[in-house]
Amino acid sequence: MRAAGAGIGAFYSPVGVGTPLAEGKETQEIDGRVHVLEYPIRGDVALIAAHRADTMGNLVYRKTARNFGPVMATAATTVVAQVTDIVPAGDRPGDRGHPRHPRRPPGTGRGPQAHRARSPLMTTTVPERTDRGPLTTDELAARIARDIPAGSYVNLGIGQPTRIAEHLSPDAGIVLHTENGMLGMGPAATADEVDTDLTNAGKVPVTELPGAAYFHHADSFAMMRGGHLDVCVLGAFQVSQHGDLANWHTGDPDAIPAVGGAMDLAVGARQVLVMMGLFARDGAPKLVPACTYPLTGPGCVHRVYTDHGVFAVGPDGVRVLETYGITVAELERRLSVELRT
């Protein structure tokens, strides 16, 4: 069940080797010990019991009654919980509530994410315009925020993407996830709001919204890898015309590798968006025919938001959705990819 909820396709275990439970199953010797290959257990509906729930769906368990409840909740499409009482979001005592896992039914897609259903992005496509210059970082963050569907569970990557949090409508019901262990993250903290124990993955102090839940890194990465997030927004060094992503290393032997949670998000989020400048400081394009930097994930990016325009990428190449301060003709001269409009 834990593997199903964490997006693990199969795993080797020493449990059951030499017993009837291992008959007919693949085995592998690992570190001198025989292991048997096991597959995840998934459910369409999980019926579990808990002590208390809040209106956001977080559950509190009492003593030994936790059992398999939290684990099976992550491995099922729909969870039905029997509880003693339901309290308003934020009324759970302390941080003891076990977080809900965002759940969506399985579906089809493309590339390495073909096992996941996709929540369609909103779009506010406007005609090409050149009456002003490129978008500022805050303008670009606001532009991306408008495309995130209401009610989505969203991870915002370190750096520029964190600015998107400042532009999300409180009425949209969007729940922010941060890989260091939180659902229900609010905007950046200021003044007396700052709590050094409440930060995002970039160590920036943030606020919490009613119904926020906390958990350790293993649970957090399971949410990311297990297909429980609707949207993630990442920065990038390069994005290829077919949606390959490179954002963790430039190949410089002196650079410190910084994978972070990007690889888990690349294979786990239903929609992977990129927020970046279209051109590097030396003028080189970052939207390229093929990535020359080490890949974070192949074929995982769906849309690229840049200061000069918005682009859809995928198996069919690049489609220009919007331009800012530049024409499509100019883009065709500066980029080495074929553009569709």
Output the keywords:
21 strands, 3-stranded antiparallel beta sheet, 10-stranded mixed beta sheet, Glutaconate Coenzyme A-transferase, about 350 residues, single chain, alpha/beta, 2 domains
Strand content: 25-35%
Overall mean pLDDT score? 88
Poorly predicted segments: 103-118
Determine the CATH topology of the largest domain: Glutaconate Coenzyme A-transferase
Region (Disordered): 87-133
InterPro entries: 3-oxoacid_CoA-transf_B (IPR012791), CoA_trans_fam_I (IPR004165), NagB/RpiA_transferase-like (IPR037171)
Pfam family, one: CoA_trans
Protein name: 3-oxoacid CoA-transferase subunit B
Written overview of the protein:
InterPro entries: 3-oxoacid_CoA-transf_B, CoA_trans_fam_I, NagB/RpiA_transferase-like. Keywords: Transferase. Residues 87-133 are annotated as: Disordered. It comes from Streptomyces haneummycinicus. The chain is α/β, with parallel strands linked by helices and 341 residues long. Helix 4 (217-225) runs parallel beside helix 5. The protein is built from six helices and 21 strands. It folds into two domains: 2-87, Glutaconate Coenzyme A-transferase, CATH 3.40.1080.10; 111-340, 3-Layer(aba) Sandwich (Glutaconate Coenzyme A-transferase), CATH 3.40.1080.10. It has a ten-stranded mixed sheet, with helices on both faces. The chain has helices spanning 2-6, 69-74, 137-147, 217-225, 262-268, 328-334; strands at 11-13, 27-30, 33-38, 43-49, 52-54, 59-60, 76-82, 85-87, 153-156, 175-178, 182-188, 206-214, 231-234, 238-240, 245-246, 271-276, 287-288, 303-306, 309-314, 317-323, 339-340.
